[in-house]
Amino acid sequence: MNPEYISLALHTLWKRKLRTSLTMLGIVIAIATLFVLVSISLGLQGAVAEQFRELGTDKFFIFPKGQPAGPGSSSVALMKLSDVAVIDKVPGVKDLSYAVAGNAKVEFGDSIRYTQVVGIPTERGDVFTESGAYEIDEGRHLKKDDRDVIALGYDFKRGSFFTKAAHAGDTIVINEREFRVKAVMGFRGNPGDDRLILMPLEDFRELFNSSDRIDQVIVQAESTAVVKEVAERVEKKLRSTRHVTEKTQDFTLLTPEELLDSFGTIVNILTGFLIGVAGISLLVGAIGITTTMYTSVLERTRDIGVMKAVGARNADVLSLFIIESGLLGLLGGLLGVVLGITMSKLIEHIAATQLGTTLLQAAVPPWLIISCLFFACFIGTLSGIWPAWRASKLKAVDALRYE
Amino acid sequence: MRMDYFYLVLKNIRRRGLRSWLTLLGIIIGITAVISLLSLGQGLQEAITSQFSGIAADRLIVTNTEAGFGPPGSTAVRKLASHDQQLLERVPGVVLTIPRLIRVTSIEYNRQKQFIFTGSLPKEQEAIDFIYTTFQLKVTEGKLLKAGDRGVVLLGSEVAKETLFDKEIHTGTHLKIQGNDFEVVGILAPLGNVQFNHAIFMPEDDLKTILDIKDEIDVLIVKTTSIARSEEIAADIARKFRKDRHEKEGEEDFSVQTPAALLSSVNTILNVINIVVAGIASIALLIGAIGVSNTMFTAVIERRRDIGVMKAVGARNADVLSLFIIESGLLSLLGGLLGVLLGMALAYSIASAANLALGTTLLRASFSISLMFAAVIFAFLLGIIAGTVPAWQASRLHPIEALRG
Q: Is B19 in Cβ contact with A19 (below 8 Å)?
């Protein structure tokens, strides 16, 4: 292929600025849409993975089965403190903590809200407090022998939950009982953590009469490498102490990896569907390129005749036109990627400032940019093949005679 | 505007045969995508609406305020009780009150244990029948439960399938539910509300016994005398509850809702999804319109001489303008019409294929005449907008320059 062809193609595209830019616009919009969808999907998965990483990849969770609406909604399969004692003794378990959840009426200032509160054993809270996930913004973590105190998620301080912003030292009424705010935890960017109300287990039991029920156990393994192994060991041990088999098991173990996998699968299915819908616009954009190239062939029938008369082969004409349409696609893709990056960054910014979540993030890996460009160029080339082939098949005599 | 403009325009469109078709194709694909997605979305929404709760406005739903998301009553800060039901019965205009429990129970069968949503059926036959009609419960095998039945259950269609217990369950089978023996007397027909297909139903007293529930109610369903008065009765109920609980208005820890209000939140979510999907699909339409614009610009360039001749023999700017606008409008109108037809065909075949694959009759494409009209009109307007700038450019051509080529 002659490099001169490229400058020739660029020259013709430039000569028909308006048509070139309108044709490109189609590709630009289509590629930008695809880029935004993939970028946000990747960013979301990355952000969720990051939250788990902060919690620590050396941990896994155990839940009793049969909770109609998650922890705190009266499960039929109970886990108790005795289960915790069993897990504690399994080799490879470094530390553990557990939580109970209940639904409460929460009053602060002049607002009343109904939300979930979580009880944690203050003497065994290290698994939470030592992970990077629950840093303290104000005050200090709940400690052993703390009573009538709570730690709040960041949303309470931001005033997006109660009408008034709550700070360490404030008093909040939960189920008609007063609690002093000991800590406000740092911003996490996900509503689950940012709306958390933590209280000492002893207080929780009095408030909810929950005796020794447990809704969730979080286990820390000795290292990330052995998490799976330890989880299997814990599962086996619990099965034997709870007298269940694999098929009648009444509790669930979840490693962060599994949680991420199932989340990733859902996001991927959704993204796949949306990409499919957005792909339709790329198809329409491709048809636009075909139309433009076909017009271009018609307009230059005489030129083609002259080229052929002075010795150009079919292959020369073919590649000239294909290069032109490929370039159209590539340039469209280039601008599309730029627009796509801008749009996804904008979405990230709006989500963070308006919705208060840092989960919607724009991921811009180089491979995404490169594959978008390749794809756009490929689509452009493909759309140009047929008009180019027609051009190459023109007979010099007929072409020259064309009016 | 004269009729021969249309004739001229059609001739022009035909003359450029292939390119006209390609331009049309862009609009057709765009409209097809939007129409088929919206029709399927609408159909899905209707299927859910019609089966969600047999929607009749003479029913009210009373729950205590929830702290989270889940089945009614599951995250209530405190449960409703028979005291609340007695209060309801004394409100004028209330014909029937039905207490319901929605819990999870463990079911053992074929040496496996699963945790399944379990709904209660009330004690009186009248109330049971009300539940059956409201949720459109029918059996494909066996029979429905009657008042006075004990130790028997109805299974949702999915619960009976082989996928859950590795063995299909038929009527007459005995299951262990929370360790107690129950006989399956009926298998329910699949419903649009998928949660029901994954649930089982048993008499209220049985559910209370096996879960050791004393005086708790998750949700109270109220039948009122008339649809017209249901808002009024709802307000009466709220007043009575506030007084009973010593609560001020605006600080209630309960809610009285019409099913329509409950449903509207589901519909809001479905609408958002529909709009997002249709929005992404309509980007294709936008690109199609850009294609029309592009084609019209080309047409103006190609027909400079014609325009020059027209003007030389006395055509005004307005004539040239309308000629080109009609052309792009007609092009898009045609694309819109074909797109709507294709979209309907596509939505219909997708729905049929999905039903065939899933073995249901639930998914259907819903075609609304107004949507079809709107789509065609929209395509037409889009075409006119796309053609405006090129047409304006053509109309402003100076005859001498145009004739010179």
A: no
Helix or strand or coil: residue B300? helix
Report the phi/psi class of residue B70: left, alpha or beta, with left for phi > 0 and alpha for psi in -120 to 50: left
Per DSSP, the three-state class of A129 is helix
Listed residue (B348, B356, B352) closest to B39, CA to CA:
B348
Q: CB-based contact (8 Å) between B35 and chain A?
A: no
- ipTM value, please give it: 0.75
B63–chain A Cβ distance below 8 A for any pair? no
Q: Which residue of B has its CA nearest to A28?
A: B287
Task: Count residue pairs from A and B with Cβ separation < 8 A.
Answer: 156
Q: How far is B66 from chain A (nearest CA, A)?
A: 7
Q: Does B66 touch chain A (CB under 8 A)?
A: yes
Mutate to test the interface with B, among A117, A284, A293, A296 (most CBs of B within 10 A): A284
Q: Which helix (H) or strand (E) holds B120?
A: strand B112-121
Both tokens assigned to B398: 């100076």
Contact between B134 and B221 (Cβ < 8 Å): yes
- For residue B59, list its beta bridge partners: B223
The pLDDT assigned to A235 comes to 92
Strand pairing partners for B48?
Answer: none
Task: Name the token pair of B198.
Answer: 């994954």
CB-nearest partner of B277 from A25, A77, A277: A277
Query: Residue A72 pLDDT > 70, yes or no?
Result: no
Of B77, B280, B294, the CB nearest to A274: B280
Q: What angle do CA B403, B404, B405 make, to 5 degrees?
A: 85
Place of tokens 């590649």: A319
| pLDDT confidence of residue B68 | 72
Chain B residues with CB-CB distance to A278 below 8 A = 280, 283
Mutant choice from B105, B283, B305 vs A, greatest count of A C-beta within 10 A? B283
Residue A227 has which token pair? 């998490």
Interface membership of B297 toward A (CB under 8 Å): yes
Is the minimum CB–CB distance between A45 and chain B shorter than 8 Å?
no
Q: How far is B329 from chain A (nearest CA, A)?
A: 18
* B118-129 exposure pattern, b = at least 16 Cβ within 10 A, e = fewer: bbbbbeeeebbe
pLDDT in tens, A336-366: 999 999 999 999 999 888 877 778 888 889 9
Measured CA to CA, the distance from residue B199 to residue B251 in angstroms comes to: 34
Q: What is the mean pLDDT of chain B?
A: 85
Residue tagged 């002075």 (tokens): A310
The CA distance from A266 to B20, in Å, is: 42
**Please, what sign has the CA dihedral across residues B243, B248, B253, B257?**
positive
pTM of the model: 0.77
* Amino acid at residue number A214: I
Nearest residue to A327 (alpha-carbon basis) of A3, A1, A4, A6? A6
* pLDDT tens per residue, range B362-404: 677 888 888 889 999 989 998 899 888 888 888 887 777 777 7
Helix B317-358 to helix B259-302 angle (10° resolution) is 140
Q: Give the C-alpha separation, B285 to B269, whole Å.
A: 24
The dihedrals phi and psi of A134, each to the nearest 5 degrees, come to -120, 75
- Band of residue B175 on the pLDDT scale cut at 50, 70, 90: very high
Q: Which residues of B297-311 are buried (b: 16+ CB within 10 A; e: fewer)?
A: bbbbbebbebbbebb
